[in-house]
C-alpha cells in the first residue's frame, strides 16, 4: 500500500545541508500497522512527512496505493492526499471550530454537500466516542479527546492510509492505551493501513505488526514485531529492547564480567524464550542432564502480539565442560541465547 524507493531528503544546501534521510526503502502492505522507531533526530518525522509529500524527498519515489506521488502534478497530488489521513503529536485542531466542524473540515474542502458531511461525520463521532462532545470546542476537551477528534477528522475523507506522527507522545499512559486501542480497532474494522512513527517501544509492542528502526536517517533494521522483541538484529535494537524491558544484569555483576571464559569462571547468559520454548522445563533439564545449577538473577514474562516472551538473566554454575554442554543444549531450543560474559567462581 505504501512503498518508498530509495528515498533521501536533504534540508538546505552547501555547508549547512542536513542529510535527514538516506536511501530509505520501505514497504507497508495493505491492512498492516507498521511502526518506525528511532531516537530524537533520527529522521522519523521527515520520513513520515515524505509519505504524503508534506516534505518532498530530494530523491527517490513515493508510491501510495499504486500511484506515484513523487511524479504527480500539484492538483493530482492534492487529490491523492485524500488517500492519506494524518494525525500529529499536538493534534493540530482548529480552536475556533467545534468538534463537529473540525471533523467536517476536510469534507468542506472537498466541497461535499451539508447532507453528505452530516452523514459522514456522525458515524465517525460515534466510532471515536465523541457524539456527546460534538458541539464543544477543542479547549473544552482532554488530550485524549482532542486526539480522537483528530483521528475522526483524518478518517473523514475515507483514506486508505493513516499516518501517525508521534500520536500518543503528548498523552498519559492510560490515554495512550485507549488511543492505541482505537487505532487498532480502525485497522481491523476499516482495513486501514497505518504507518506510525514513535520513540516508544510500548507503542510498537501494543499495536504494530512490523517495525523499522531508523538511525542517522537510515533504516538499519526491519522485522516482524515478535522477532524484533525476541532477537533484535542491531546493537541499537538491543538497546531499545533492554531499555524497554529494563532487564539488565545487576551492576555489581556487570563489573565482574570477563569477555573470555576461564577454568574457574562460569557464564552469565540472557535467555529470550518464545514459542514452544516458553513451556519447556529447561532449567531442570540443565541440572539433570549436565549437572549445571542455574542461578536466576532476573526474569520477566511479556505478551507481544499474542506471543509469550520470557526473559531471564542467569548464571550457569558448573565446570567448563558442563556449562559448554548446557549452552549447546540451550542453543538447540527455540530460544535466543546471549552470553553476557563470564564471572569468576567465588565458591
Ligand atoms: N526543516 C528543517 N530544516 C533543517 N533541518 C531539519 C529540518 N527538519 C528536520 N531537520 C533535521 O533533520 C534531522 C532529522 O529530523 P527529524 O525531525 O526528522 O527527526 P526525528 O527522528 O523526528 O526527531 P524528533 O523525535 O526529535 O522529532 C535532524 O538532524 C533535524 O535537525
UniProtKB/TrEMBL annotation:
Top-level taxon of origin: Bacteria
Q: Which PROSITE patterns does the record associate with it?
A: ABC_TRANSPORTER_1, ABC_TRANSPORTER_2
The ABC transporter domain, residue ranges: 2-241
Where in or outside the cell? Cell inner membrane
Question: Is Cell membrane tagged as a keyword?
Answer: yes
Going by the UniProt record, its keywords in alphabetical order are: Amino-acid transport, ATP-binding, Cell membrane, Membrane, Nucleotide-binding, Translocase, Transport
Recorded hits in InterPro entries, A to Z, give: AAA+_ATPase (IPR003593), ABC_transporter-like_ATP-bd (IPR003439), ABC_transporter-like_CS (IPR017871), ACT-like_dom_sf (IPR045865), MetN_ABC (IPR041701), MetN_ABC_transporter-like (IPR050086), NIL_domain (IPR018449), P-loop_NTPase (IPR027417)
Q: Which SMART domains does this UniProt record tie to the protein?
A: AAA (SM00382), NIL (SM00930)
Q: Which GO terms describe its molecular function?
A: ATP binding
**Pfam family name, one:** ABC_tran
* UniProt keyword Cell membrane present: yes
Q: What is this protein called?
A: Methionine import ATP-binding protein MetN
Origin organism lineage: Bacteria, Pseudomonadati, Pseudomonadota, Gammaproteobacteria, Oceanospirillales
Q: Give the gene symbol.
A: metN
Amino acid at each position: 500500500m505504501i512503498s518508498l524507493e530509495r528515498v533521501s531528503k536533504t534540508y538546505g544546501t552547501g555547508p549547512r545541508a542536513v542529510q535527514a534521510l538516506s536511501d530509505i526503502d520501505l514497504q507497508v502492505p495493505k491492512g498492516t500497522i507498521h511502526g518506525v522507531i528511532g531516537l530524537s533526530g533520527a529522521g522519523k518525522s521527515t520520513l513520515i512527512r515524505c509519505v504524503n509529500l508534506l516534505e518532498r524527498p530530494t530523491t527517490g519515489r513515493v508510491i501510495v496505493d499504486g500511484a506515484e506521488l513523487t511524479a504527480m502534478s500539484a492538483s493530482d497530488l492534492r487529490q491523492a492526499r485524500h488517500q492519506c489521513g494524518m494525525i500529529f503529536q499536538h493534534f493540530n485542531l482548529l480552536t475556533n471550530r467545534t468538534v463537529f466542524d473540525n471533523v467536517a473540515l476536510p469534507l468542506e474542502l472537498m466541497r461535499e454537500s451539508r447532507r453528505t458531511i452530516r452523514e459522514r461525520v456522525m458515524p465517525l463521532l460515534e466510532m471515536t466516542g465523541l457524539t456527546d462532545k460534538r458541539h464543544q470546542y477543542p479547549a473544552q476537551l482532554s488530550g485524549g479527546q482532542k486526539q480522537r477528534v483528530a483521528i475522526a477528522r483524518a478518517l473523514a475523507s475515507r483514506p486508505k492510509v493513516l499516518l501517525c506522527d508521534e500520536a500518543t507522545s503528548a498523552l498519559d499512559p492510560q490515554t495512550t492505551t485507549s488511543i492505541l486501542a482505537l487505532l487498532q480497532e480502525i485497522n481491523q474494522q476499516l482495513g486501514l493501513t497505518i504507518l506510525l512513527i514513535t520513540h516508544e517501544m510500548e507503542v510498537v509492542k501494543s499495536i504494530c505488526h512490523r517495525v523499522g528502526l531508523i538511525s542517522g536517517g537510515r533504516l538499519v533494521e526491519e522485522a516482524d514485531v515478535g522477532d524484533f522483541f525476541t532477537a533484535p538484529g542491531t546493537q541499537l535494537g538491543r538497546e531499545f529492547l533492554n531499555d524497554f524491558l529494563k532487564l539488565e544484569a545487576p551492576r555489581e555483576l556487570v563489573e565482574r564480567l570477563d569477555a573470555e571464559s576461564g577454568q574457574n569462571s562460569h557464564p552469565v547468559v540472557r535467555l529470550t524464550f518464545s514459542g514452544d520454548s516458553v513451556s519447556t522445563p529447561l532449567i531442570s533439564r540443565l541440572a539433570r542432564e549436565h549437572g549445571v545449577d542455574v542461578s536466576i538473577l532476573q526474569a520477566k514474562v511479556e505478551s507481544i502480539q499474542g506471543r509469550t516472551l520470557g526473559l531471564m538473566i542467569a548464571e550457569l554454575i558448573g565446570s567448563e565442560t558442563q556449562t559448554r554442554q548446557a549452552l549447546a543444549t540451550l542453543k538447540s531450543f527455540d530460544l535466543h541465547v546471549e552470553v553476557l560474559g563470564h564471572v569468576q567462581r567465588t565458591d
